[in-house]
C-alpha cells in the first residue's frame, strides 16, 4: 500500500527531477471540474463530484543535463518506448542553447512543415466520486461507491504541424489516502456551505494506482478566410484515438472535436480534461483568439476502479456499463499569454442502475509560455 508519506516523497522527487531553466518557456495550466450546474445553480453532489489538476510543460531543453548530453550526442531520446526518432533541426553554435530550445519548441510559434518537436510535462491532480444520495450513512449496494484518486504524472508529447502523439504515466493512490473525504468536507463547510457527505467510511480501500495513456491527435479540414492578404483559420476538425491501461482505467476511446471561431490556433484542441495536452504549437502573433467547440467521445470500458472496486481486496462495487460516451460544448478565449476554457459535459450512464445521465462543468486557466 502506498502510504501518505511515500506519496508525498514521490511527488517531491518528480517536482525536482526536471529542473527547467527560465529561458525554456513554461506553460502552466489549472483545471477544475465540478458537478454543480452553473446554468441552473443546482449542486448535485453525485457520481463524478469534483476534480482538480495542475499541469506544467517544458520543451526538451528543460531536461536534466545528463539526458540533454545523450540527446545531443545521439539525436534521440534514450528511452525504449519512444515511438519515433525525434530530430533536432538546424545547427547549434558552440555554447548556445540547443536547437530544440528554439521558440517553436517552447510552444509560442507554429511549427514549419518539416519540424518535429518534443515536450515534457508534470502534473498533480485529485478526483473523487460519490453515490447519488450522500445523506445516507449506510452502504448503498446498488449505487456507485465513494472513491477518490490522488496522483502525480509525467507526460511526453511528439509534435508535428498536423499530428501529436502523447505518452503519459500517472501513479498515485485510491482510497482514504487520496483525501477525498477531507477535501469534500472542507469545501462543503468553508466554501459552498453544503451538507456533509455521510457515507465516506464505505469508500473503496487504499490501493496503489498506475495509469498509462497513449493518444494520437490530428488536425483536419481547416477552413480559412482571407483578411487583408492574411489567411485566418475559422474552422477545423480534431480527431483523437486513445487507450488507457492500468488498474485505475483500462479502456479505449475515440473522439471528434469541431471548432469555429476567430484566429483558431494551430494546436490540437481545447485543453484536455483527462490528459496533459501540451499547449503548443499555437501561433501567438495575434494577441486575441476565441472559438466555440463541440465534441463527442466514446469509450469501451474494460476496467474502472471507481465502479469495479479494489483489484485484489473486497470493496463496494457495482456492475458497470461497457460503453460510455460524453457530449461536450464550450468556448476558449485567449488574450496574449492568458487563456480561459469553459466546457459542459453530458455523460451517459456509467453503471447499470444509474438514475439518469450526469452533467458537470470544467474550467481551465492557462498561462502560456513567454514569447521570445
Task: Please render the helix and strand layout as text.
Layout: H1 4-17, E1 27-34, E2 47-59, H2 65-74, E3 117-130, E4 147-160, E5 163-174, H3 180-190, E6 207-218, E7 220-227, E8 230-246, E9 249-262, E10 288-304, H4 305-308, E11 323-335, E12 338-347, E13 358-367
Antiparallel strand pairs: 1-2, 1-13, 2-3, 3-4, 4-5, 5-6, 6-8, 7-8, 8-9, 9-10, 10-11, 11-12, 12-13
Question: What do you see in this structure?
Answer:
With 372 residues, this protein is mainly beta. The chain is 10% helix and 44% strand. It contains four helices and 13 strands. The protein has a twelve-stranded antiparallel barrel. A hairpin with a 2-residue loop joins strand 4 and strand 5. The longest helix is centred in the N-terminal third of the chain and has 14 residues. The chain is globular. The protein starts with a helix and ends in a 5-residue tail after the last strand.
Quick synopsis:
The protein has 4 helices and 13 strands.
Estimate the helix proportion, in percent.
10-25%
Largest sheet: 12 strands, antiparallel, barrel
Secondary structure tally: strands: 13
- Residue-averaged pLDDT: 78
Enumerate the spans where pLDDT stays under 50 for 5 or more consecutive residues: 13-24, 75-115
**How much β-strand is present in the residues?**
35-45%
Report, as a whole number of angstroms, the end-to-end distance.
Answer: 46 Å
Order of H and E elements: HEEHEEEHEEEEEHEEE
* Structure annotation, total helices: 4
Shape: globular
Rounded to the nearest angstrom, the radius of gyration is 21 Å
Strand order of the largest sheet: 1-2-3-4-5-6-8-9-10-11-12-13
The computed structural class is mainly beta
Amino acid at each position: 500500500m502506498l502510504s501518505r508519506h511515500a506519496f508525498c516523497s514521490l511527488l517531491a522527487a518528480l517536482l525536482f527531477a526536471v529542473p527547467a531553466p527560465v529561458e525554456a518557456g513554461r506553460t502552466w495550466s489549472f483545471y477544475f471540474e465540478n458537478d454543480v450546474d452553473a446554468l441552473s445553480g443546482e449542486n448535485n453532489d453525485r457520481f463524478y463530484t469534483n476534480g482538480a489538476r495542475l499541469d506544467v510543460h517544458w520543451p526538451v531543453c528543460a531536461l536534466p543535463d545528463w539526458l540533454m548530453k545523450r540527446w545531443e550526442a545521439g539525436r534521440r531520446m534514450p528511452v525504449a518506448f519512444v515511438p519515433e526518432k525525434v530530430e533536432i533541426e538546424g545547427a547549434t553554435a558552440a555554447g548556445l542553447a540547443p536547437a530544440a530550445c528554439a521558440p517553436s519548441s517552447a510552444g509560442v510559434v507554429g511549427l514549419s512543415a518539416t519540424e518535429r518537436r518534443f515536450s515534457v510535462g508534470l502534473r498533480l491532480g485529485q478526483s473523487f466520486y460519490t453515490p447519488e444520495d450522500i445523506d445516507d450513512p449506510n452502504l448503498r449496494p446498488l449505487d456507485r461507491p465513494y472513491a477518490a484518486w490522488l496522483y502525480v504524472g509525467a507526460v511526453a508529447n511528439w509534435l508535428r504541424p498536423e499530428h501529436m502523439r502523447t505518452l503519459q504515466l500517472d501513479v498515485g493512490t485510491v482510497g482514504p489516502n487520496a483525501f477525498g473525504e477531507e477535501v469534500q468536507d472542507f469545501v462543503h463547510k468553508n466554501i459552498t456551505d453544503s451538507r456533509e457527505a455521510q457515507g465516506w467510511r464505505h469508500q473503496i480501500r487504499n490501493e496503489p494506482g498506475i495509469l498509462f495513456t497513449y493518444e494520437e491527435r490530428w488536425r483536419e479540414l481547416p477552413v480559412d478566410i482571407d483578411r487583408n492578404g492574411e489567411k485566418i483559420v475559422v474552422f477545423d476538425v480534431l480527431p483523437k484515438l486513445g487507450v488507457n491501461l492500468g488498474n485505475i482505467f483500462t479502456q479505449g476511446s475515440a473522439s471528434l472535436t469541431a471548432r469555429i471561431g476567430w484566429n483558431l490556433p494551430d494546436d490540437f484542441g481545447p485543453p484536455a480534461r483527462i490528459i496533459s495536452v501540451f499547449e503548443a504549437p499555437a501561433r501567438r502573433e495575434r494577441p486575441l483568439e476565441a472559438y466555440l467547440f463541440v465534441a463527442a467521445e466514446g469509450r469501451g470500458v474494460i476496467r474502472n476502479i471507481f465502479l469495479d472496486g479494489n483489484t485484489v481486496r473486497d470493496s463496494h462495487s457495482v456492475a458497470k456499463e461497457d460503453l460510455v460516451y460524453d457530449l461536450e460544448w464550450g468556448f476558449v478565449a485567449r488574450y496574449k499569454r492568458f487563456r480561459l476554457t469553459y466546457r459542459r459535459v453530458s455523460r451517459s450512464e456509467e453503471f447499470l442502475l444509474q438514475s439518469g445521465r450526469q452533467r458537470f462543468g470544467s474550467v481551465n486557466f492557462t498561462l502560456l509560455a513567454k514569447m521570445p
